Amino acid sequence: MSNFIKLNYKINNFKKSIKIPGDKSLSIRWVLFSSLACGTSRAKNLLISEDVLAAIEAVKKLGIRVRLKNNTCIIHGRGIDGYRYKKNLTIDAKNSGTLSRLILGILINTPYPIKIKGDQSLSKRDFKRIAEPLSKFGAKLMLKNNYGLPLKIFGTKKSNPIKYYEKKGSAQCKSSVIFAGMRTEGKTFIKAKKSRDHTELLSKYLNLPIKIQPKKNYDIITVNKVNKIFPINYKIPSDISSSSFFIVLSVLTKNSTLLIKNVNINPSRIGIVTILRKMGAIIKFEKQKIYKGERIANIRINGSKKLKSINCPTKLNAGAIDEFLVIFLVAAKADGVSIFKNLSELNEKESPRLEWGSKILNLMGIKTITTNDSIKIYGNPDLNVNQEIIIKDYLKDHRVFMTSVIAALAFGGKWTIHDKDSIKTSFPSFLKIINSIKK
Questions:
Q1: Catalytic residue (one of 51, 92, 219, 322)
Q2: CA separation for the pair 301, 13 (Å, rounded)
């Protein structure tokens, strides 16, 4: 079967209601927390993607029993110290930065060296940023070329609490240190730049000895040793990052209406909604509720008749870091020049996304000016793509693939987009939902 798709038409206006699969960040965290719990945890609507399956395989290698049955995942946790470590163990994180970094914090007490590896894209990402704080606990990490994967972690019998300043807004690094602090006697202090807070919210829901003091630009987190985690029964809400592609498609398609049900609208994740609203998009949250610490709602989007450019406030970057590629598509159709700054973190993702965002727009005929951490986008409200466009060699970054599909449907042109299997990492049903909207 060919691993590319061809698209050569613009989508017509639509009025649809869709359901997006479970949140990837929550799915992986649920697997890890449940593996450390005492007893049996159950989750419905767990995202069944390569990244989440890699998390399941990782805890199974550590002696945890897992069953996938119909739409339910069951994990039989053995307690905070219940992992069964083996010699010569290798954990394959596939494409998952979340799994590979978070599990390192859990493994700081391993009595045997454990190797962590990943695919070509993950292996190029920066693991020095997490190796440094974890080494302060007493663990030792040996990285390839002192930077990336594969790496080996050598645990410590007695970990030491640390003080850690997380400056990049990396929820993965922050969460990894939280997990390490949970396994350490004494108080671990974290001063963290604002970023996703799923780990903190789940910890609070579970009544773990973790305190969060929110400040204007950062959080102070105090972590004490955890002795017991109770089982977690969870219906995973839908993923806002996956929803973002359909939000943007709706915004860019006049006279369209889309309802996305039961989406996680955690305030640390809805930067895309705030940014698009500032650009003139009509997006509403309906039937809001709190579910196990997370804010959930239906999202209603109406096609926008006129979009305006934005000088994007950098304070919104952390809450939209995974969505900027599709946000750039909205800027391409906006009236005026849009400016996005302090985005060097985009190039630390699965591919150099800032470069790819600019490249896709350039192929569509949109002028951009980029630096290593910023982009100016010269919008064209009348943009209509007629040329042939080929997207390939992007390190199989699922977001590059999905952004390209949305661009093709919103603006037209003759597109050939390679590596469609890349969506298996986070959103295997993406094209199926696209087809349901086209009908």
A1: 322
A2: 12
